[in-house]
Specification:
The chain is an alpha/beta fold. It is built from 15 helices and 13 strands.
Length: 373
Amino acid sequence: MTKKAISTIMRLLLGVKAVCALTFAKFVWVVKTVFFSLHILWQPRKILSNYKFLPFFLTIVVVLAIAACNNNTPQLEKRQTSATRTPIETKTVSHALGKVEIPLKAQRVIVLEENIILDSVVALGIKPVGVVYCRGCEEKFRGIPSELLAGVPVLGSIGSLPSLEKILALKPDLILGLTNLKSSYKLLSSIAPTVLIDFPTMYDFKERLRYVAQVLGKSDRAEELLTQYQNRIQKLRQQLGKQVEAKTISVIYLAGSADIFYSYRGDFLPYGQIINDAGLQLIQQNQKQRELTLSIEVLPEYDAEFLFIMTDLLKRDFKEANPEFLSFLKKPIWSKLKAVQNKQVYNVNWNVGGTIGAKRIIDDLYKYLVNTP
């Protein structure tokens, strides 16, 4: 074997060492093995006859080096991964079912609710990666313009658990929902940290906005939104004037029956909270029960100078296809209401969840109270 050949082998070994970053011990092992093999051929009498085997021994060198490299690769990858991976910062938050550790700044949020929580999430400037919608409602996302959720995958409807496969495919780092998902909490938590809100104990939309903002790390933005809301309320109060503020307001909800209606306590839903903030007198303000199912015979007790009727949970085609629904307005007791006689009855869509939907309610109060003769 010539000095040139030996020099080539040495350069190859040094190159393999540099590229593969072998440990000193492994490199020595490779070199000793190769030179032990070459020693057999290192006899002048057999130089010519054994030179033809040089490619074979070069192959051995490469194979041995690769084996050493491969043996070391997992450790190298492990070191590189641990050096380059950025730890995810987390925080612990309390929710309806206890405490949970969540990302400090969640990037992929799924909202399994269509207005109470979703309104706050969208208002805070976060576009969810997955949502559910309201089946049977005129609006899929009550009080939230559809363009704000354009392109967001719909995972199912409220009241049922969406496909876990669909949720998994979206790779969320945070799931938000209401306590109606309590039975599925463990399943959801196995996919991503899950925070559930108990609506009956967090019904104030301003308190709810602040809580969602805390979870999402957007508390400053929440205060900006509430300041904007309060400024608009103050302007509305100035426009209403003392004369309108002294008049009474009633809000009832029709649910498709000609014989019953629903009444909600004044502070329980956002529209009641907004009406109160505006300084207006809501008939239901002192109602003790959160919700009452009432017969049409007691409708006069809920009469006011301004009567607002909510029917927004019902599909428009249902109302058109069900004449009996409209027969509520044809009952003799209806015509005796002073709001009817003064033509101050308005059909509104006030089933909203937060500051986005609040804009609609304030717009309607301007429209029907400020601009009404």
